[in-house]
Amino acid sequence: MRNRLLVASVVCGFLAGASARPARAEEVKTTHTTKILKRPGEQAPVVVRVDAGRSMTVLASDGRWLKVRVNGRTGWVTRSQVASTASARGVQRNTRRRPFVDGRSVRRGWSGDAPEDRVGADATDEDDREEADEADEPAPRAKKPAKKPAPKARHRDRDDDEVEESEGDEAEEAEAEPARKTVTVVAEETDLRAKPSRRGKAVTTVAKGDRLAIVGEDDSGEWLEVENQDGDSGWIRAKEVSSDTRAPRVIRADARIGFAALGQNFRSNGTGTLANYKLGSSAIALAIGGGIDVKYKTDFRLGADLGYVGGRAQPGIRYTDGTTSADIGFVTHDIDLRAKLGYDWHKANGMVAWGKVGYHYGMFAVANVGDFTKNLAKIPSENLSGPTAGLALEIPRLSPKLGAVASADVLFPGKRVQTKGLEDGAASKVIAVWASGLVSYQWKSSVTLDAGYQLSYAKTTWAGAAAASMRGTASTAAARSDVTHTITVGLGKRF
């Protein structure tokens, strides 16, 4: 009788202990790369991003939204982004019979339960240990990863209200996750598929010009797994997209050296040798420039350029007054500051069309301008200034190694100021045009070999006599055209 009472007590105690053990929380796994949000709603801040196949513990539900915990972080996902792991857990538990070492679990798929051969102290704290394993080891993927695995998660207190503490971690998450390569859709319209096959179920539709982030690729390289700006991910054929060859921010600088050929043609209604003449000279030229441009919205870029072109002519202009000859040296300085707006065509060659506005300041400085024994032609020093507007077409990838830029700028209205006492007239009207081209060869990863050409043309007209002019032409109407050809070569640097 005593033995029967003892057996009954043991059975009752076992049943009571079994009924007191809490039921295991429901688990789900992600069906694709998924954003865990701070609160229900697609526009909520992102707490963390997890890969496809990641197991998560369900804490609560609210309509189509589930509150989950993964990697020690808590947030919300929609039911359509996850699948139950119950069936997978059953299969794993029936097929796995490997021993545990030091009370630690060996991972097996998405299951978080210990196998039936785990007993005694090995069976305690299983949930915490399984979560630690999940944080330390990312779920396997069937494709090539496009980025390094996320940093190992740190264990934190797992209170349900932990999501409220994640606001300050959003910037840290962004820094920890490297920027992903993006591509642009070139097909008129196509579907993202659930698997890398045209028979795969359509997930969503994308159109020409849409920007997509690369998540991975299949072994053949014919399909890419991508994600759009709404967080929808799927597979797309590689030939339906093109790589974005232009970075979100481009900073450049270049320096070139060469020569310039200058010509002037002056005509007036005056008299004397200086009333009508032509002259020409060559000079050593130096070109230095730099600029920056950044992505603006989807299709545009904003930028600014600063450029300098200088020349030095020595001996300079040869002039003969009939009895005496002299060489007249000079230097030139041209500075251009421009702001620009570009349209990105999203082509594989990185083509961008630019519109520009800016300001030009130019100086033509004659050596010994006031010494008429050396400046026999009494050529004045001059300043030319005024607003500019222009267009440019930039193609960084004409070929894998070659790039090119073509541009044109117009100055109007301009103002030309001459040395006092050596004016060609009382008032001036100026228009100037610059056309230039630059070809770059990719020498190193961020260094190019550059060759540039610039044609500058300016026409100036004067009306009315300059009463105090010492040029002695007695003209009341005059016009002059200036043409300069500049060729330079050098190096460019991209940052």
Describe it.
The chain is mainly beta and 495 residues long. Helices cover 9% and strands 51% of the residues. It has helices at 2-20, 86-95, 126-136, 170-176, and strands at 27-30, 34-37, 46-50, 55-62, 65-70, 73-78, 82-84, 144-145, 182-185, 189-193, 202-207, 211-217, 223-227, 233-237, 241-243, 249-268, 277-296, 300-320, 325-344, 352-366, 382-395, 402-418, 427-442, 447-463, 477-494. The radius of gyration is 38 Å and the shape is elongated. The chain starts with a helix and ends with a strand.
Note the topology.
Layout: H1 2-20, E1 27-30, E2 34-37, E3 46-50, E4 55-62, E5 65-70, E6 73-78, E7 82-84, H2 86-95, H3 126-136, E8 144-145, H4 170-176, E9 182-185, E10 189-193, E11 202-207, E12 211-217, E13 223-227, E14 233-237, E15 241-243, E16 249-268, E17 277-296, E18 300-320, E19 325-344, E20 352-366, E21 382-395, E22 402-418, E23 427-442, E24 447-463, E25 477-494
Antiparallel strand pairs: 1-4, 1-7, 2-3, 4-5, 5-6, 8-12, 9-12, 9-15, 10-11, 12-13, 13-14, 16-17, 16-25, 17-18, 18-19, 19-20, 20-21, 21-22, 22-23, 23-24, 24-25
